[in-house]
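hey so i finally got around to running the thing on that chain from the lab meeting. sorry it took forever, my laptop kept dying and i had to restart like 3 times. anyway pasting the input first so we r on the same page abt which one it is
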Amino acid sequence: MFSKLLVCSALAALATLLGANGQSVIVPGAPWKDTSGNPIQAHGAGILKVGSTFYWFGEDKSHNSALFKAVSCYSSTDLVNWSRHNDALSPIAGTMISTSNVVERPKVLFNSKNSEYVMWFHSDSSSYGAAMVGLATATTPCGPYTYKGSWKPLGADSRDEGLFQDGTAYLLYASDNNQNFKISQLDTNYYNVTSVVSQLNGATLEAPGIVKRNGVYWLIASHTSGWDPNPNKAFHATSLSGPWSSQADIAPESVRTYYSQNAYDLPLGSNAIYMGDRWRSNLLGSSQYIWYPLEFSSGMPQIVPADVWSVNLAAGTYSVATGTTYEAENGQMGGSSRLLSGTGFSGGKAVGYLGNGGTVTITVQGRGTAQWVSLYIANGDSTWRNTTISVNGGSSIVLDQPSTGGGNVVLSIPVQLNLRSGSNAITFSAGQSNYAADLDKIIVY
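ok and heres what got predicted. didnt touch it at all, straight out
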């Protein structure tokens, strides 16, 4: 499990931004607010489509704790604008879903036999020692759901889990102390598992999802590294019973799935959407959502690391926004900032030693509106950094910057800035005593 970025108060604008053409967009890693203006709290996502409406179930982490607060339920018809409904599942004292327990990765399927919505989730103790699945049911998508119980499927551990429906329904789960990964068939009611149909021994996988493309099943999952990111992998097979291929990367290994962990993989036309979490273990409620196109055109699923992108659900396609790039080394360096060289930087150069007296000012062209700006940064620390940002000498805001996994590993971090029409001077890292991440470039959208 991993971490997410927090943009401080003045810049916590909607992650759903309407561009000049009125098209709504997804901005991975930006604060995402619901239609009431509140931060979306739906981590470890599960998506269910009913008619033309999508329902997003997830963990409410607004109390900044791994312990159970609620399974939230949001709805949308465009995957961008989400409305929060009543909590789908709430704590019950004295049970495995009390506020002293763990409820993670809720997934919901509709059972046509009983005309019932069935929720499965990872049910655990606060120490993660119970390693169970939990079950709840409802007659409407958001419920509220009635808790039915928690247990070990077929007597074995189950921690991170997912569901997949392909005529029959299946439970996907990390088992046997996270060492073996299992796929088990559900009964016709979706109330229990009946048998293990596939087992990947020694795979150490978690955070699973499956997408079926042209008769091929693609299993997307991470390995186990606590809340920290790792390179998520893809496996394929022509049958859920296997044999499964060896693992393959869905993104360059060095970026650790762009500092995210898989939560759900939603089909989109001939491709899919990778829906992940950027966990922030000390501020879980500030963990952000990393949703990217998952492209299959090469024959292997690959994340398209789009800073700003949009979905056409009717066509089953996606579009990536284009912006204007400004190299940091071409900006006006100030104080103790230094020019850095590295193979991971665009053009081989970046500006470092920002903060603690070092600054850089980049002049950009604006449209006289709020615009998304992506900072391409490198932070080799294991901990987060931050940078101040000031536009045209105005008051500064603070943007948090996650570890990128190495001093030459670059990730993009979004922020929304109000830019006037024409020339704008954006100053980074002024007035802060701590060091910011190195800045490779920015892209203005």
